Amino acid sequence: MKKWKIKDRPNTSHLEKQLGISSILATILYQRNIKEVEEAKQFLSPQISHLHSPFLFPDMEKAINRIKDAIKKRKKMLVWGDEDVDGMTAASVLFKVLEDLGGNVSYWIPRRATHGIGLSKERMERALENEEMLIITVDCGSSDGDIVEFAKEQGIDIIVTDHHEVRHPPNSFAFLNPKGSSYPFKNLAGVGVSLKLTLGLVDSILGIRTDDFFRVRKDLLPLVLLGTVSDRVSLLGENRILVKTGLEAFPNVNQPFIQAIEEVIGVTEPVVEEIFEKITSVLSAGRGLETENPLMRFFLTNSVDEAKEILGGLLNAQQVFEEEFEVVYRECVRRINDKGIIVLDGVPFQFLGSCASRLVKETERPAILIGHKLGDIYIGEGRAPSDFNLVEFFAQNEELFTSFGGHKPAAGFSIKEEHIKSFIKNASKVEYKKEINKGDILDIDAIVNVDEFSAGLFEELMLLSPYGEGNPNPILATMGVKLQKDNSGYRFADISGISITARGTATVDKRIDIAYSIDDRGGLKIEDWR
To answer: How far apart are the first and last CA of the chain?
Structure first.
């Protein structure tokens, strides 16, 4: 049993009257710091028209003019992506639109297992040989100042579109990163920044504004949805708009990759949790394949049969991965000490991120795992609780890395073998003390009285979805209810038509107080009772 922390119900009469909503919904909005009527309107009914102008990126005009010049002169362009779902959806969105605009464009997705993380001098040299004199990065580039400078010396223009933390912005031809500019929304995923560039391009070249563009190009919304959800960015602001419209578009878009997801994985009208648990895990499986990662072909193919074949292969790879993962993870657990940052080397490359994430979840400590890539280069993947900044920690060891970058809770690096011991030694000196464990405290958003408890209320509360990072599932409490068992879990003895599931076994046939959450489909789940 947890200790319940029940938040005071504030005065929300202005929201209730002007929006025509219940006091429960108004209370939850207020608790989430959505206190003004106009802000609440946009939160409850997010629209594409609420997106910021792409031209609020200071370098947007410069980037667009350079791309327009390349299109006009039929010069080669290269979209340089990253080998995760966010990076590949970002590359797909930009590649599709550049092709539609008549661009002479190709793409490059470096394999992390063989090419490392970020930009590389070797591929820049190949770009020079191929006369690819304009490179547009997606979901990468912010930490690659040296490589950008090298490319510039060779006459290659680089437009960086990225969303990772920025310490020293690269001296690129144009730099589009909300974290390194005055752009008003800082938490776009890589695919979100890529989308902003495409919206600016079609506005400038075709005179088509964002609302009109998505009426004819709804096929891009599911890509933006998958990339945004997979990268676990905050589902507030522009991300909420993109995810909600993407969820609405998903079952109505005729694209081979969507049909494959529906038929092979069995997901037809996804919610956020379902995307992450059932779709992202399969789409990510290509990173562990020794041969080609086929995910870009999956997103770009015009053949349903090809898309289904690719996804079937990824599904098989994911099932093998999960079996092998359990063995590798148990070995990682056996090796960890009882304090400080977890740092383990010799971990198979394809399991670095997954093992690090699970270690953080189960130990509540930062976890950094290092595995062999190729030759004398090794890759490190780090994950951390919210109170530890991995990017800052890696910056303190910058001289040991070939490259590094990422986000505060999730970052990575490349390192030569001779520097691994020094890094592990440095990490062992860091004293990490986690914040006070709040796992035994249950924050209650609002008390729902029995006379307020109805199917209509929970239907109204669905306006708060989609739930995810920054917008968690609401936790409500109702006092003095009686539960009875039924086929789907439990039902309320005194309230008809509403079922509820539970974590574990709940007390039945006597009055209890229950705390329960609401999921993206409106289902109720008991989190605790007393």
So the answer is: 7
